[in-house]
Amino acid sequence: MKQFQIPSSNYYHFKLITSSDFELLASFRQNKELMQALDKEVESDEKVNNMLQTMPPKNTLSNNLWWLIYSNEDILLGNFGIKIDLKNKRGEIGYVLYKEHWSKKIMSTALGSLLNFAIELLNLHSLEAKLSPHNIASKKLLLNHNFIKEGHIKEDYYFNGYFLDTEIYSLLKHNYVPRETK
Question: What is the mean pLDDT of residues 60-74?
Fold first, then answer.
């Protein structure tokens, strides 16, 4: 899995989630507080296992790459990832931190590492992120990394008894600014 390694920063290191990482992935996907923050339902063991089947090494042609984010003291902080569309040189990114690590600029550094990987190593032309219009911190994070708001889709998904909106942000390669990921 060396080809999918993201270089560590001075403060964080990243471990590719593989098909054998059920407990680690479930710690996010089955965390009610985190999933509510993402406007998503807590996932069953079966759904987590199905997601793991799309990841290396079970799927050697995987276009679904996710990494765990650790502090240099080996504290699990969060995860991030990218779903890759090689034909169109495009990727959809996602990210989450445990709540106790919010508002500490952790994701800004981590996202810089993911963007460097996606654009410089995978040679993607564009990246996309979808989020709730109420997630102000995520909007600021994306805007600080030169993403632009591409659209606002009204009531496109149902969660917790309500139809909710989605905002879409994108970053084109020519707007990308490499980040020092110290």
Answer: 84
